[in-house]
């Protein structure tokens, strides 16, 4: 069967290869892949700066954002049967089976020895067929159709937002305004989820006011900020919740000024530039004097995928085609290389498997 | 009556003056001050870099860590009567009466227009008599005696620790090890509170292994780290909770390396040095990949003073004279100037009012 693989840490190693069709073991299912989304992590793996093949393999099958159909179930799989449309989660338990991995929330793995389909020591789903443990599959309601390929990135946002709200149960908190830095898929999905929670939401990016990203923000009732015209540091408004979804240190530093009293800021990126925070003491003092909080959020677990399904249905109901508009390129597997070249108005690129 | 006052932003302005005895208004009590503790905030006010007198006053009566006896109650005060020994909390509601101030938790004030006895726009208790709203008094059980002068700094620690634990209810969290940076009164009190919670606690400072601070840490079952011998960055252990109680940026930066997966770090200081965090991107990425969290905690409210009383009684029971050992200097009011000169083995200096 065909598979889209990379060979980190080699640069520009993404290619299509023929590999054997996998066999589902006990507790696993064989999936027929319908589509995979491509994100920044896939591009970083292709650049050779992230990712790791399974032990003993020279290559890593990509594809951690997947939509698939159950083709065959292994022994002792009871909850799924042939034909079910599913999305697999990404993280899998560490070998040590730590407190969190043991209970299915390996996004909070304590050992750091977790596995991640398509990223870290486990093949992904960007192949005609793939296997996954049945315990980590999410059943997709038919109403969602192909949109469910967005469920994995949405699950990242669901974790970030849920964690923010859970954290703030530490105090009396009635958030009114949220700011999302970045209007890529994560930023736009965060904008939608925060709008569903009834917040006034600002989303900022570098695209002009008439760009697709700006339109999607307004489409869901948010306020779009073009940071080339209105740099973040010129904004006077303060926010109860700030989500940093650019992965850029400079944007993160600027966004610190948006934090109101008792606010929470969530970071979602891998911040690679070497850049100093010149007045770190001021950042800390500002946190202290205003009971401010910052945290990082990584990966997601089944509960976040399940929240994502509910919220996708609600977004469809309220904002009609807002989710569809995120999918700006649909490529056939044979055109996979285009997915690794970014295009100006691109939001989310999907690769379809026939 | 005599009062210890300062005139921020004047430098070295602390002096004793004669001022009129105040009168309790409706809902207030007249307090006869028994003792006040002196801390870093008092010293910063004396240095002219913090604090603000009440509107219309040239001077600010100091003393936000106080122990007092009720001398007289104003109209409509029902819960206190003459002779009650009390500790007043420090923060008072903002004029706007924001959501949090309205409900007695002005340590989470949303407007920033709160008042603080002895610090910000309200006189403190370092005078023979003082007034406070009765709603913000904590009754002291006789068993605690003069030790209750430590209740205000303990309340700061109670807030920091309670917030840390509340925040972590966001996940499955079974903390085992805590690290406290700094062994001043806040650091030592934090060490005690975290020990009461059953944690293995490390506390670090610059004093030698046979210093009083080191002995107090060991006295409560903690591990003392002399950072001159064992710099924080050489430690390999990782911690579930880190409390930064030095107020120094350099210590804060070093302590970031102590954070284990899913950990929480609390900052308690006002960080005045101008120092950069050279690799801010690394700090953020580390937060993200390990679900790490940082927050600042300021002031405290009645609930934290009440926790403090319970915990003081428990510390006395378990660790005998550990709290008494924190009080290293007891000065008479006339010797107040000594309190603003730090002494090598000093932990907490108390000024007694006869």
What does this structure look like?
The structure is a homodimer of 354-residue chains. Chain A is α/β, with parallel strands linked by helices and 354 residues long. Chain A has two domains: 165 residues, Quinone Oxidoreductase, Chain A, domain 1, CATH 3.90.180; 142 residues, NAD(P)-binding Rossmann-like Domain (Rossmann fold, 3-Layer(aba) Sandwich), CATH 3.40.50.720. Helix content of chain A is 25%, strand content 27%. Chain A contains nine helices and 19 strands. In chain A, strands 3, 5, 6, 10, 11, 18 and 19 form a seven-stranded mixed beta sheet that branches. The first copy, chain A, has a six-stranded parallel beta sheet with strand order 14-13-12-15-16-17, with helices on both faces. The first copy, chain A, has a three-stranded antiparallel beta sheet with strand order 2-1-4, with no helix packed on it. The longest helix of chain A has 18 residues. The radius of gyration of chain A is 20 Å and the shape is globular. Chains A and B meet through helix 3, helix 6, strand 16, helix 7 and strand 17 of A and helix 3, helix 6, strand 16, helix 7 and strand 17 of B.
């Amino acid at each position: 069967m065909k598979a889209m693989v990379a060979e980190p840490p080699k640069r520009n190693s993404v290619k299509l290869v023929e590999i054997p069709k996998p066999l589902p073991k006990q507790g696993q299912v064989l999936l027929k892949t319908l589509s995979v989304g491509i994100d920044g992590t896939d591009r970083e793996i292709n650049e050779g700066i992230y990712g790791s093949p399974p032990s003993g393999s020279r290559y890593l099958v990509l594809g951690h954002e997947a939509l698939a159909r159950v083709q065959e179930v292994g022994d002792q799989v009871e909850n799924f049967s042939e034909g079910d449309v599913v999305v697999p989660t990404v993280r899998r338990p560490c070998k040590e089976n730590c407190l969190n991995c043991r209970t299915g929330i390996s996004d909070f793995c304590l050992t750091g020895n977790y596995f991640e389909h398509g990223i870290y020591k486990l093949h992904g789903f960007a192949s005609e067929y793939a296997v996954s443990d049945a315990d980590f599959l999410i059943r997709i309601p038919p109403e969602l159709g192909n949109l469910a390929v967005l469920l994995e990135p949405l699950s990242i946002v669901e974790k970030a937002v849920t964690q923010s709200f859970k954290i703030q149960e530490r105090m009396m908190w009635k958030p009114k305004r949220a700011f999302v830095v970045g209007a890529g898929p994560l930023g736009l999905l965060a904008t939608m989820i925060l709008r569903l929670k009834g917040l006034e939401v600002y989303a900022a990016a570098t695209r002009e006011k008439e760009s697709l990203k700006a339109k999607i923000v307004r489409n869901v009732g948010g306020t779009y900020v073009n940071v080339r015209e209105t740099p973040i540091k010129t904004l006077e408004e303060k926010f109860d919740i700030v989500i940093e979804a650019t992965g850029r240190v400079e944007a993160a530093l600027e966004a610190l000024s948006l934090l109101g009293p008792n606010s929470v800021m969530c970071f979602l990126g891998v911040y690679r530039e070497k850049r100093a925070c010149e007045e770190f003491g001021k950042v800390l003092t500002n946190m202290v004097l205003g009971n401010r909080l910052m945290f990082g959020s990584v990966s997601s677990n089944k509960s976040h995928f399940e929240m994502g399904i509910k919220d996708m249905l609600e977004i469809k109901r309220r904002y009609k085609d807002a989710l569809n508009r995120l999918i700006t390129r649909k490529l056939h597997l044979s055109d996979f290389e285009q997915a690794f070249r970014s295009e100006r108005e691109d939001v989310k690129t999907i690769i379809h498997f026939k």
